[in-house]
Amino acid sequence: MKEVLKKYAKRYFIDAMGAMALGLFASLLIGTIFKALGMIPGLSVLAQIGAGAQAVAGPAMAVAIAVSLKSSNLVTYTCAGVGYLANSLGGAGGPLAVLVIAIIASEVGMMVSKKTKIDILVTPFVTLLTGGLLSVWCAPYIGKAVGVISSLIAFAMTQQPFVMGVIVSVIMGIALTLPISSAAICASLGLSALSPVALATPELAYGLGMAGGAAVAGCCAQMVGFAVMSFKENKWSGLVSQGIGTSMIQMPNIIKNPRIWIPVTLASAITGPLATCVFELQMYGEAINSGMGTCGLLGPIGIIIGWFSGSYPNAVGAWDWIGLVLVCFLLPAVLSLLFSELMYKLKWIKPGDLTLPE
Q1: Domain locations in the chain?
Q2: 3 state SS of 280
Q3: Which residue numbers in the chain have pLDDT < 50?
Q4: Which residues are within 8 A (CB) of 199 and not within 5 positions of it... i.e. 6 or more apart?
Q5: Which of these, 160, 260, 178, lies nearest to 214 by C-alpha position?
Q6: Is 144 helix (H, G, I), strand (E, B) or coil?
Q7: Phi, psi torsion values for 282, nearest 5 degrees
Q8: Which of 77, 91, 137, 316 is 20 to 30 A from 282, alpha carbon to alpha carbon?
Q9: Where does the chain show beta strands of DSSP type E?
Q10: pLDDT value at residue 271
Q11: CA 221 – CA 271 distance, rounded (Å)
Q12: Reported pTM
């Protein structure tokens, strides 16, 4: 019984989740990077390309999951439609909805795959019906469950800057690594001093801008932290894929040993209040950038663009640049390394625990 459980845990929570993370990066995240590059004069075509990649995030994740489960061709191709439905109806919980629903649809589809003489009709029909009904019935509730995170962030914004910095940074950092959309959460909450809701009062704009800065700090801590502390195992490819790609690809390893999450989370608990109380980093760029971390460097870029948008109320000086570099890059790397070394000495983390799947 134990061996059976281990087999299915690996199949669904390691192999499928790892594939989903790669599908997310190959669509939504790389598309977001292209859209950012499209802001450069003369490169607007890249923004169009990026928008196209973002639009197929759901199908890309679902197909990646089906491939990891070794589904038949018809099941795999049909999962594209399932992924679109689950992701679009799941809101900020879209990736998690895709993970759950695509697994079920794929497994049910394989039950009938190649079992009849009209396989070309039966297999996609059963796969899409299963995934489609689950998407309609379950995906919105998965989105509402993820909405609890939004409620916690909203509560944190009512607290004084230090407490807000800790809560927002830690929660958004964790959300970035989980199979949910931290960017969608930030966008829905309007974590930018220039979001429409922020225009109501200067105090609200200041609070949303500061919360956006704390979110950037937390997201950067997860990505940079995992990239640096796993360098011994994953070398330069791991540094780039996690530091500029996504820390979500560590989720299979986190499931196997949740303690590997401790160093980067502690780092975010430190950099968050530093961002709000010491350097007063505020997001004056797009709210979505607050939840991107160092994915394509979009978190820091959002802050920088905001500085020179014409709306930033202060003069940008050396202290701002020092804060940006420390909070987004140097401190996450140093703190995560220090905390991970302690974890290794306590034998809470062992060599190989952070190795990324091929």
Answers
A1: 2-145, 157-345
A2: coil
A3: none
A4: 205
A5: 160
A6: helix
A7: -125, 145
A8: 91
A9: none
A10: 97
A11: 8
A12: 0.86
